């Protein structure tokens, strides 16, 4: 499963995680509707947009997940945002959030748009700098698992699965979060068999979940081209 697909599903099912990442109350997500949009008459696609449901005082959040170096990313994001706002006039202001696996991947040129960063109009998140997994909220810890080194990912995943099973979340939310963790694990370990994954992570009937086969196939395909993004 491609990284942007994982994040799309994550923000669609657990939108509060975005607001936790930018240090806002997770309940803020109740004021927003999440979607991925394509700017009309262009090849631009914005990874994710959090549109306020009612209040014009709440900003629109544009989210970009960037796991490959791209020196033009900031000029592209700003162009996409302003073109989208021209086509869809809102009274709300806007904010941008760019999510990287690490600082080394952030190769974007900022000399022509540094005001967007000094004003905190655009925020950059580096997943490997979020802190110790055990001290993070479960949602953010799940995101961090995506960039966890393979030598520590096994122990981290076991701990995260146990934390998830013991949460007070509603059964459906807990099930969806466990499925998301399963998706990430299958993606990170594409050469492992079903039995090996079940045994290693204490997961039962993994083959019956909808994430297993798609994650297995796509994880194997991407493993040969994208491993460096997780280092």
UniProtKB/TrEMBL annotation:
Pfam families: DUF2887 (PF11103). The keyword Acetylation does not apply. Keywords: Cell projection, Cilium, Flagellum. This is Flagellar assembly protein H.
């Amino acid at each position: 499963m491609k990284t942007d697909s994982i994040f799309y599903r994550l923000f669609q099912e657990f939108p509060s995680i975005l607001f936790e990442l930018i240090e806002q109350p997770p309940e803020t997500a109740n004021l927003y509707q999440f979607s991925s949009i394509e700017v009309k008459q262009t090849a631009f696609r914005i990874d994710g947009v959090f549109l306020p449901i009612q209040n014009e005082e709440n900003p629109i959040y544009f989210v970009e997940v960037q796991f490959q170096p791209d020196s033009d990313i900031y000029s592209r994001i700003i162009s996409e945002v302003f073109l989208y706002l021209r086509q869809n006039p809102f009274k709300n202001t806007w904010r941008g959030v760019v999510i990287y696996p690490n600082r080394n991947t952030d190769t974007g040129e900022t000399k022509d748009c540094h005001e967007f960063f000094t004003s905190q109009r655009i925020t950059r998140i580096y997943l490997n700098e979020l802190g110790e997994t055990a001290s993070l909220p479960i949602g953010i810890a799940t995101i961090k698992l995506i960039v966890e080194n393979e030598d520590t990912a096994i122990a981290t995943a076991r701990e995260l699965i146990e934390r998830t099973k013991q949460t007070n979340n509603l059964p459906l939310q807990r099930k969806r979060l466990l499925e998301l963790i399963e998706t990430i694990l299958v993606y990170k370990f594409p050469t492992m068999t079903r039995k090996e994954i079940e045994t290693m992570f204490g997961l039962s009937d993994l083959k019956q979940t909808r994430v297993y086969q798609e994650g297995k196939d796509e994880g194997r395909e991407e493993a040969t081209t994208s491993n460096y993004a997780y280092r």
